[in-house]
Amino acid sequence: MSEQTYSPGLAGVIAGETQIACVDQGKLLYRGYPIADLAESVTFEEVAHLLLFGELPNQKQLDRVKATLDQYRDLDPAIVDAIRNIPKAAPMMDVLRSMVSYAGHFDPVQGDDAKANQERSLWLTAQIASIIAARYRLMNGNEPVSPKAGLSHAAQILYQCHGEEPTPLAAELIDLTLILYAEHDFNASTFTARVITSTMSDIVSSVVGGIGALKGPLHGGANEAAMEMLEQFKSAEEASAWLQDAFAQKKKVMGFGHRVYKHGDHRATILERKLRKLAHEKGQDQWMEIYDAIKEPMEQQKKIYPNVDYPCGLTYYLLGLPLDLYTPLFVASRVTGWCAHCLEQAADNRIYRPLSIYQGHAERSVPPMSER
Question: How many beta carbons lie within 10 A of that of residue 289, not counting itself?
Fold first, then answer.
């Protein structure tokens, strides 16, 4: 056998080919379209169609996507009852993992070909948003709110959480975060979903696996951690003092750095512009002062740049959303990317079966009980 090589974490290993996204130092493309152009020009529903069906929709196709999402938003009463019975202390990501799996028993889509799984992907997108909102309402002593047909997917999430239609800027910001989080190549959760699909398992199982992978703090949760960091400061001066101490003690600063982007995350720059507008509209400009007190020295002194989670955490905070919802909202977006990869994997499938390098004992005999 030829000499085996080992790459921890599969770093640098090419595990497949994809037409869905290109992640590189200078660009992030969804099926060839730059993320900045998509963020400026289209809605999340259009991005969902792009990822799942391969092209941006015309008006008729977009109307169908919106109608399909509206059709599938209502949760079966059994799912709502199950959410009620989950202990209040359970993290939202645990709830989401369990409830998406449970919702699979009520899957209304027939068949398992590509067309059926495209439809099922929209069903999952609608159901996940409603599960998040229902859990949020019940945790706050309120009954779930029925969806309101005609709202955008982003506005619907806020409506079902808060019971009232959001402001245009709030809906616009949620829509933007959904677009920015929708897809990112062979990241850990997407790779997990593809591996599960490669066994010819169902797409619901693949999405549940993706949720499990995203729950890990080395993958998802960075937006929560970034906001937890910012929340401890009452002023920019406090933030600056803390940061210099963090530099001295070589502490990790959450929301900065990226495995791929070494010179800045394009998504962070896009979101930050809207975040500043939101903070000003809400009379919360002091948060941007704190934000900049961390960001500017990180860039200038350490040459380490924000990733998308840094502005996203503060965006969700200013929209009145609790920390426990931040990673689930990541799921509400990324489900479209996961499903697109599941469809792509299934279309040209080969089961994933990497090798390992054995480092255990050399071959040995089993000793009798008296000698153990």
Answer: 14
Same domain, 23 and 73: yes
The CATH number of residue 308's host domain is 1.10.230.10
CB contact set of 229 (below 8 Å; sequence gap of 6+): 253, 254, 255, 294
Specify whether the backbone of 32 is left (phi greater than 0), alpha (psi in -120 to 50) or beta.
Answer: left
**Residue 363 structure tokens:** 């071959």
Any idea which residues carry the catalytic annotation? 219, 258, 309
Residues 280 and 207 both lie in one domain: no
Q: Is the pLDDT of residue 307 over 80?
A: yes
At 73 the three-state DSSP class reads coil
Task: Give 206-254 pLDDT, tens digit per residue.
Answer: 999 999 999 998 888 888 999 999 999 999 999 999 999 999 999 989 8
Number of domains the chain contains: 2
Reported pTM: 0.94
| DSSP per-residue letters across 183-246 | --SS-HHHHHHHHHHHTT--HHHHHHHHHHHHHSTTTS-HHHHHHHHHHT-SSHHHHHHHHHHH
Structure token pair of residue 116: 């059926």
Burial of 212 (0-12, 13-18, 19+ CB in 10 A): middle
Whether the Cβ atoms of residue 113 and residue 195 lie closer than 8 Å to each other: no
Backbone angles phi, psi at 17, to 5 degrees: -115, 150
Pairwise CA distance, residues 290 & 281, whole Å: 17
**Sequence-separated (6 or more) residues with CB below 8 Å from residue 132:** 92, 96, 157, 161, 325, 328, 329, 331, 332
User: Cα(32)–Cα(53) distance, rounded to whole angstroms?
Assistant: 14
Residue recorded with tokens 């990324």: 334
